[in-house]
Amino acid sequence: MSKVTQKYYVVWKGKEPGIYTNWNDCKTQVEGFTGAAYKSFTSKTEAEQAYKENFAKHIYKKDKDNTPKDLSAVGTPIHDSIIVDAAWNSVGKDMEYQGILYKTNTRIFHMGPLANGTNNIGEFLAIVHALGYCKKHNMLTIPIYSDSRNAIGWVKAKKCKTNLEQSAKTQHIFDLIYRAEKWLTENSYRNKVLKWETEAWGENPADFGRK
């Protein structure tokens, strides 16, 4: 099993600004705080240096015309939501995905590792899995967050537009894809599928910690 990377969460604007070593503590400081500014780092030194600097240097990006983009305009994530993410192992070439309840940071489903998958496929399957979970458990309006624009677009189109070659080695992956596409075709849902704004909110809480 891959070792989870230690992360350091810098909170510039929150209930109690500072540096935190786990997501739950960070979430407590920023949840419900208007204009919260925070971001995760993979080293203590980097986090300490960032905390001394203006948060805009780290969580604002420039758009194509080089104008600073105020990412605080996206607001804060909805507390009562499901967040999904996928991971792909560049060595083993396998994929897995999971979903968590944001308000409790509890994992509600996990699939994999699956050989010969891709990260985008994992993201797509994770969203559909979350939609099915919501329908099964009568969670009909809870939003679902993913940090993959591709996967969100595929779900809306009800089609996994992967470039993965279909073969005997990948047939098990395509079986899951067809099952997910069939579910999307045969089921309606009210759950909003939203983009997790990493630059404004920090790392996706469902991340596997392998970046």
From TrEMBL:
Mg(2+) 1 binds at D85, D207. Mg(2+) 2 binds at E123, D147. SUPFAM superfamilies: L9 N-domain-like (SSF55658), Ribonuclease H-like (SSF53098). It comes from Lacibacter luteus. The keyword Metal-binding applies. It is found in: Cytoplasm. It is an enzyme of class 3 (hydrolase). Keywords: Cytoplasm, Endonuclease, Hydrolase, Magnesium, Manganese, Metal-binding, Nuclease, Nucleotidyltransferase, RNA-directed DNA polymerase, Transferase. Endonuclease that specifically degrades the RNA of RNA-DNA hybrids. It catalyses: Endonucleolytic cleavage to 5'-phosphomonoester. Belongs to the RNase H family. This is Ribonuclease H. GO terms for molecular function: metal ion binding; nucleic acid binding; RNA-directed DNA polymerase activity; RNA-DNA hybrid ribonuclease activity. Its cofactor is Mn(2+); Mg(2+). Residues 76-211 form the RNase H type-1 domain. Its EC number is 3.1.26.4. The keyword Manganese applies. PROSITE patterns: RNASE_H_1. Binds 2 metal ions per subunit. Manganese or magnesium. Pfam families: Cauli_VI (PF01693), RVT_3 (PF13456). The lineage of its organism: Bacteria, Pseudomonadati, Bacteroidota, Chitinophagia, Chitinophagales. InterPro entries: Ribosomal_bL9/RNase_H1_N, RNase_H1_N, RNase_H1_N_sf, RNase_H_bac, RNaseH-like_sf, RNaseH_domain, RNaseH_sf.
